[in-house]
Structure formats: structure tokens, C-alpha cells
């Protein structure tokens, strides 16, 4: 699989984990929220809003256009801090998906999944 295809898989996992954790249903932030200069728009959006309306939207747009992808990503460590208040069952699948996205962007391929 190409890096673009692997990223598409990782994004689908993120959306699925956010839906399962009831984090996908977010109100769209106001337009001015996107103008934030803070990392992850932390001052104008919740992390789930940023994940859905910024990260997923921009990465999907890059995939659709066949654009170059970011070469470095460290989303999962920041998300670990921001999602601490969620139950483990809601938090861990989202974090695993974000680790997958980071890994695809940093290395060009998905992490190998541990066998059950």
C-alpha cells in the first residue's frame, strides 16, 4: 500500500474510534476559531473538534488531491494530555488511531498491529 492509502486507513480508524467514543458529533467551530495561532487551535476548539474539522478534513483533502503529506507528526502525545478526562474505553482507541496517523506520516507506513 502507498503512504496515501495507509493514511486513509488510519483516518478511517480515527473516525470509527471517535464515533464509537461519541466524540465525532461535534458542533462545527465558528470560522474565526480556525484562525488560531495556537497548536491544535487549543484556545478556540476542543481537541475532538480539531481532530474532526481540522486534522481529518485537511488530511482527507490532501489525500483526494494527491498532495504531499506532512513529514512529521506528533499528534498522539498532545492528545494524551488533552483526553485524560475521558474513560479508558473512549480514550485508548482514539489514541491508538492517532499513533497510527503519526507513524504513517513520520515513517511512510502503518505500525504493525500486535496480534491478539
Automatic annotation (TrEMBL):
SUPFAM superfamilies registered for this protein in UniProt: YqcC-like
GO biological process: single-species biofilm formation
Species whose genome carries this gene: Kushneria phosphatilytica
Annotated protein name in UniProt: YqcC family protein
Listed Pfam families: DUF446
InterPro entries linked to this entry: UCP006257 (IPR007384), YqcC-like_dom (IPR023376), YqcC-like_sf (IPR036814)
Domain of life: Bacteria
Gene3D superfamilies: YqcC-like
Amino acid at each position: 500500500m502507498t503512504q496515501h492509502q495507509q493514511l486513509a486507513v488510519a483516518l478511517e480508524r480515527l473516525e470509527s474510534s471517535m464515533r464509537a467514543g461519541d466524540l465525532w458529533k461535534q458542533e462545527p467551530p465558528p470560522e474565526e476559531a480556525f484562525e488560531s495561532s495556537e497548536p491544535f487551535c487549543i484556545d478556540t476548539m476542543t481537541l475532538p473538534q480539531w481532530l474532526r474539522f481540522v486534522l481529518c478534513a485537511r488530511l482527507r483533502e490532501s489525500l483526494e488531491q494527491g498532495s504531499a503529506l506532512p513529514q512529521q507528526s506528533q499528534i498522539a502525545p498532545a492528545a494524551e494530555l488533552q483526553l485524560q478526562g475521558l474513560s479508558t474505553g473512549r480514550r485508548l482507541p482514539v489514541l491508538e488511531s492517532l499513533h497510527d496517523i503519526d507513524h504513517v506520516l513520520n515513517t511512510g507506513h502503518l505500525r504493525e498491529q500486535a496480534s491478539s
